[in-house]
Amino acid sequence: MYTEFFQLREMPFSITPDPAYLYMSPRHQEALGHLLYGTGQYGGFVQLTGEVGTGKTTIVRTLLEQKLPDVDVAIIHNPRQSEQEFVQSICDELRVSYPRETPTLKVLVDALNEHLLKTHATGRRTVLIIDEAQNLQPAVLEQVRLLTNLETAKDKLLRIMLIGQPELSVLLSRPDLRQLASRITARYHLTPLNPAETREYIEHRLRVAGAQRELFLPESAQLIFRYTQGVPRLINIVCDRSLLGAYAQQSRVVSPDMVRKAAQEAIGTLPTEFDPRAPFRWLRIELGWALALIACAGLLLYSFTRERAVPALSAAPAQQEVLAAGPRVVDAAPPPLSDLPALTATTQPLGLVMGRMIRLWDADARIVRGENVCNALRPRGLECYRSTGSWEDLRQMDRPAMLTLDLPDLGPQYFLLQGIAGDNATLDTALGPLRVSLADLEAVWNGEFLLLWRRETADTFIGPNSSGESVRWLWQRLGSSAGITPPEPLPQRFDSRLREALRQFQKERNLVADGTAGIRSLIALGDGQPGTPTLRSGDTP
User: Fold this and answer.
1) Which of 65, 382, 427, 483 can bridge 377 by disulfide, Cβ–Cβ 3.0-4.6 Å?
2) Which DSSP string do the residues of 473-522 spell out, in sequence order?
């Protein structure tokens, strides 16, 4: 159809999950890293969730494309099965021998256990991937839990990955499934793309398909994000229809009008409202940054341009006096959170919280009103990292982070985490640092966070296919951060020596020891660099 007209090798926006077209956003890199961890020697039980069309299945296929050594994989694509059918499907995937005439559940499990023991003895690992896991029946999920009991004295015989929509998390929160949920060792929720990533995603797929020039005007890409909210599958549908529309009009570029018509035909009207409790909360936050910048007080904007620092974007006059006087301890003891008197009285606008976090990294950073904050920070070597995790995750990364706390009567509010010491966290508030117990914060924090980190290399993922300057930089950083002696001359390509050196570093830092450098490994490699704020230095004694 339009491929010849646009001089493309193939259709770039097919909705089939082709790993060749995978766009590795920071969140997709993290998701792949979690799955790689699940296949490793110390992997166990991994859960990956995400909205429909965010790329979960493509990431799974990318994992399989890695051709992992000494790993056998069984994939269950149809989870709507009985307990016996489920175990039988696993056996069939792994080519386990069992009586075909009248197999019982016990016979199947015994045969599977015997097979796993044999493969384990030869040094191989076995991974079970369950796609669309939100459709598993509770009885089958209980069988999954029982399969995790197949083990030797030291190792699990079966590594399990649950891949599903957000409903999977709701399902696993049921009281009768708490034993299963407690065995999950790594969780990750894959969120949609932001506006800048949406444009990069479109350009990436076009390049893979052979495009030699831009086909979508910048305004068209912006409109595609507004219609699709960054969901890759919807982006593919709208882009495909848009290219078809451009071809019908013999236009070499896709205009906003073409996108508008294609999107209305494919997915309906343009969304005009954003639900703060919707799954796209972090997309809403990014839009909120721009709105906060536009709506901030004129006096503080004037201060912003004169002081050459990221301002307190919408602080009240009383707050400005406190900020000018510098931070102070409001209460050295954790306040009671039964009615949240301390936190509810010290909430701040999102733009102010983000501005304070930026100022910890770069006092000279300037953000233009209406500009995407993360995009504006990128030329200064700073990257945004959004994810979900635990207090231990934040403690391990050791960087100030913006948390979303769901406070009673107020809903989602934003706080800057300055430090963690022992069982307490130090939050930056309108009245200065406030110490709160982690146990109390657990009741109002859903695990979402955003932090900044300094990127020292062009790539945000360094793995088996990497080469050039990023590989040399990784060797040098491992030499300075972990005391590992790099080979001479420095290799140009990622090889087994670098993989093992990186694994050693990751084990020492309690990271996922998969031998690839994703965002969290790159953050850890930046420890000790000048100008790097940490949670340890930010804690108020």
Assistant:
1) 382
2) HHHHHHHHHH-----SSPPSB--HHHHHHHHHHHHHTT---SSSB-HHHH
CB 327 within 8 A of CB 430: no
Backbone angles phi, psi at 345, to 5 degrees: -85, -5
Of the pLDDT bands very low, low, confident and very high (cuts 50, 70, 90), residue 33 is confident
In this prediction, residue 188 has a pLDDT band, given cuts at 50, 70 and 90, of: confident
Predicted confidence band at 235 (pLDDT cuts at 50, 70, 90)? very high
Q: Are 217 and 180 in contact (CB under 8 A)?
A: no
18 has a pLDDT exceeding 80 = no
The first and second tokens of residue 292, run together, are 């906060």
Q: Write down the pLDDT at residue 330.
A: 35
What are the residues whose beta carbons fall under 8 Å from the beta carbon of 534, sequence distance 6 or more? Answer: 398, 399, 400, 527
- State the Cα–Cα distance between residues 288 and 265, nearest whole angstrom: 29
Q: How far apart are CA 483 and CA 477, in angstroms?
A: 9
Q: What is the pLDDT of residue 279?
A: 40
Q: Are 232 and 23 in contact (CB under 8 A)?
A: yes
pLDDT digits 0-9 by tens, 358-399: 989 988 887 766 567 887 888 888 998 887 778 988 999 999
Q: What is the reported pTM?
A: 0.53
| Peptide bond before residue 491 is cis, with ω within 30 degrees of 0 | no
CB 267 within 8 A of CB 227: yes
> C-alpha dihedral over 323, 327, 333, 334, to 10 degrees?
60
* Interstrand relation of 186-190 and 159-164 (parallel, antiparallel or unpaired): unpaired
From the list 394, 16, 52, 45, the residue with the least C-alpha distance to 191 is 52
Burial of 370 (0-12, 13-18, 19+ CB in 10 A): exposed
Looking at residue 7, the DSSP 8-state letter turns out to be T
- What 3-state DSSP class applies to 433? strand
Among candidates 94, 105, 95, 168, which has minimal Cα distance to 131?
A: 168
Q: What letter represents residue 319's amino acid?
A: Q
Average pLDDT over the chain, rounded to whole?
Answer: 80
Q: What is the dihedral of CA 56, 61, 62, 64, to 10 degrees?
A: 130
What's the pLDDT score for residue 198? 92
Q: Are 177 and 138 in contact (CB under 8 A)?
A: yes
Calculate the CA dihedral of residues 81, 82, 83, 89 and round it to 10 degrees: -40
- Write the DSSP string, 147-193: HTT-B-SS-BS-EEEEEE-THHHHHHTSGGGHHHHTT--EEEEE---
For residue 282, which of 387, 429, 139 has the smallest C-alpha distance?
387
Least confident of 92-106, 254-268, 314-328, 487-501: 314-328
Instruction: Answer yes or no: is pLDDT of 305 > 70.
Output: no
